[in-house]
Amino acid sequence: MKIELIDRTELYKGFFKLLRLVLRYQRFDGRMSSEASLEILERGDAAAVLLYDPKADALGLIRQFRPGPFLRGESGWCTEIVAGSCGAQSDHEAVAMRETLEETGWTPYDLRLIRSFYLSPSGSSERIHLYCGLFDSTCPREAGGGLEHENEDILPVVVPYATALTWFEGQVFNSAIAVLAIQWLIANRDALRRGDA
């Protein structure tokens, strides 16, 4: 299937980039489409980590302010899993470990890739590399809480699995990354606790 890129214009560059692409693509019937003008949020890759303690059967989560829900009239305080932009770094596992330490103060003793995926491929290039990080929630942690120069104010919390499941069913989690991660944990929890996964 052919794609013909006619023009690429950078409309905005800040923490995110907004691009306008003008292109044509081969249709399923073999003909080329007419020119399409598409705006794409250029975000790059990000790493996300679901922290799970299989011995304590508990999750390491974070709470922080997010403007998206706030602008929709909801509470801006979200319960999430660790996540951060990879920037120019191509070692996604290293980013996952760094972000986990920065945001929570914990260091996973085992990090496993769950899968990589796009959140919204029609409007964004952002690709998420989702990991499960096994950790010991009883170990003292370093400071965590995010980086002051990035204006982060993050509260790490340990939550029993049963509580997290109640929150999941009650739609406390409103981030797609957290929803996918917890769905994965529901399917894989028993194997993680047995040490099979």
UniProtKB/TrEMBL annotation:
SUPFAM superfamilies membership: Nudix
Keyword set, alphabetical order: Hydrolase, Magnesium, Metal-binding
Gene Ontology MF term list: ADP-ribose diphosphatase activity
EC id: 3.6.1.13
Keyword Magnesium: yes
Domain of life: Bacteria
UniProt domain Nudix hydrolase: residue ranges: 42-171
Catalytic activity: ADP-D-ribose + H2O = D-ribose 5-phosphate + AMP + 2 H(+)
UniProt-listed Pfam families: NUDIX
Cofactor field: Mg(2+)
InterPro entries: NDP_pyrophosphatase (IPR004385), NUDIX_hydrolase-like_dom_sf (IPR015797), NUDIX_hydrolase_dom (IPR000086)
NCBIfam families in alphabetical order: nudix-type nucleoside diphosphatase, YffH/AdpP family (TIGR00052)
Family indicated by similarity: Belongs to the Nudix hydrolase family. NudF subfamily.
Role according to the record: Acts on ADP-mannose and ADP-glucose as well as ADP-ribose. Prevents glycogen biosynthesis. The reaction catalyzed by this enzyme is a limiting step of the gluconeogenic process.
Name listed for the protein in its UniProt record: ADP-ribose pyrophosphatase
Species, as recorded: Candidatus Magnetaquiglobus chichijimensis
